[in-house]
Amino acid sequence: MKKRGNFPEMSNEDTITWREMLVSTTDIVGDRIIAKWLCEHAAGVDTEEWIDVLDEKVTARCGLHLDAMMRRYLEGEPLQYVLGRWAFRYLDLMVDQRVLIPRPETEQLVELVLTFLQAEPSHQKSIVDLGTGTGAIGLSLLQESPLGSLRVWLTDASTDATDVARANLAGLGRAAMYGHIAEGSWYEALPNKLRGNLDVVVSNPPYIAPDDTEVEDQVRNWEPYDALFAHERGLSELKTIINGAPEWLRTGGLIAVEMGHTQANDVRELCRVAGFVNVVVHQDATGRDRFVTAVSGPAE
User: Has this prediction a pTM greater than 0.85?
Assistant: First the structure.
């Protein structure tokens, strides 16, 4: 195996194994776990299969693929986009630059909705995941609920995002028949028959203020702007979602949203003014305010 700068270059006479390639890749990227993920992806195997290919020879095609992925990663592209997939709860999602990278904290938002559903009477529930992106929230709800117990609408204003969500829905198996992709801005994407009949509105909307200095450069430079940033100190899209929810939720239905860790008071007040009851702020695993849930009260 020859070297091109810091990168290995494959040639026809190479007899390097994946075990040796892992060592070389670790030296280049500086992290053995990331190197292992890159090698697994280049080899076309899952983690549980990796041990079985360690002593197999790396083909020229696989070596070139690994080379390209290392270059992208070292040039600053997020690992999730380089791999083209990422885990979220029990899902293996297709992820690329058309959509926001699913975050671990958002997994807790799914848990809050599941807890609500489990306490409800047994009938098929109607749910909308607004601004779905990859489909992570809505698809997790479908996968982790009894088959046929939910109908989930996954909406996004971005055609690119709905294309990604549609691809991820197709990989869900039998549960996919209960998922519906709809393109449009927030509630505009929904069929009129759902008005006043939704059991849950859930969303991880854009909630970052454009001038927020806490945003990492990698996030600002690579992830879709419209999925991250919102006007009015990051509150404009949350306001639209919360104000519109009473028209679409049944009495006793749930709204559950993710927010910035400094926005709890504002979001709580938005829910109160919109007529919601049982407004609760939930913290993420780091102890920061991250989610608000509230229940639709009776119409005045």
Answer: yes
